[in-house]
């Protein structure tokens, strides 16, 4: 394997999608900014129409199991949208 074949962890984006409790759907991405921090962005829609975009950061993830990270990100995406509505 060559050095250019190795993708640094910070460049690997993970996609998430869901629906907020107030009926907006969202499509988002997140990546690991470092070992215990994630940055994310999400686009919100209702009935297919664009309603907004938000960005966020989650810190202190050292105790979170890898298989739960998606849920933590989705919760933060929902919370951020609900607080701004």
| Radius of gyration using CA atoms only | 14 Å
Q: What characteristic shape results from the CA principal axes?
A: elongated
Domain module tally: 1
Mean pLDDT: 87
Assembly type of the chains comes to: single chain
Give the spatial strand order of the biggest sheet. Answer: 1-2-3-4
Instruction: Return the string of H and E elements.
Output: EEEEH
Counting DSSP H or I runs of 4 or more residues, the number of helices is: 1
According to DSSP, the number of beta strands is 4
Range of strand content: 35-45%
- Helix percent reads 10-25%
Residue runs with pLDDT of under 50 for 5 or more positions: 1-10
Can you summarize this structure?
The protein has one helix and four strands, in the order ββββα.
Describe the structure.
This is TonB-dependent receptor. Keywords: Receptor. This protein has one helix at residues 69-84; strands at 14-19, 25-34, 37-46, 49-58. It is of the alpha+beta class and 85 residues long. It has one domain (3-84). A 4-stranded antiparallel sheet has the order 1-2-3-4, with helices on one face. Residues 1-10 have low confidence and may be disordered.
